[in-house]
């Protein structure tokens, strides 16, 4: 079966590859329709690794996906042939200690599409556990359904932040994840979210949403803006979504006493933090690694109409043009947010 294969760093091929398609009793087989190009996919393509996850063998890319069920296992009761679905790409061991305490996303035995050594879903058909496959409401398009996966990261961040109604938030980094974190924070109860970046075009896209305030930190001090607007108190929550070590510089100035830093972006190099400054303000730190138990919440929020992710899809490509899509993503055009591949 044809798939988009990362042969090694910076070498992609659209070629046939043997992938398991046997449908177990608790599985479904899905004909793919839409797959989003994620920043992690692009990072594996350009760098061959993300932190401890290293591409050592050819790997199929893709994990933001939606499609149609074409076969169901004997024990599957929640789905049927013809159902439109999206898929949570991580498959944990539900008997593991991590799963039993609700943290299956950090289960050491978890497999996750397009995370070495596990193949992704940029191929016409996949087999997936029905328990991690979600039927789409009629009003949710395939394009929106393929956005559930990245939006779930934002929902996980909002849950970890323990947002209180009226909180003021800050998101550093106006990429796709940063914008979705900001939207999830607003849905979670934040009254206003400042979002930072160095690229005006990205900030302009984020600023189209009500109650998201863009701040170009190349031109303006984030601390000056936030402290002025909060009468010197600071933001209740800061979500770091850029992965840049520079984002941590002066971050303690922005957070109020007793506030919280939620780390989402995975830094490409170690980050130096002066913990005495955190301690002096009793700033709490939470971290996010993907998500757990929120995928259906993310889908429900999209279906409710309270969040519109359609404007974030800025380009579509056919499966045959998958390599072109990745070359475009590598170029990092400032007006691009989410590129999607259609089958």
UniProtKB/TrEMBL annotation:
Keyword rRNA-binding: no
Cofactor(s) the record lists: Zn(2+)
Domain Enoyl reductase (ER), first and last residues per copy: 8-335
A Pfam family assignment: ADH_N
Alphabetized UniProt keyword annotations: Metal-binding, Oxidoreductase, Zinc
One annotated GO molecular function: oxidoreductase activity, acting on the CH-OH group of donors, NAD or NADP as acceptor
The keyword Zinc is assigned to this record: yes
CDD domains in the cross-refs: sorbitol_DH
Family designation: Belongs to the zinc-containing alcohol dehydrogenase family.
Name listed for the protein in its UniProt record: Alcohol dehydrogenase GroES domain protein
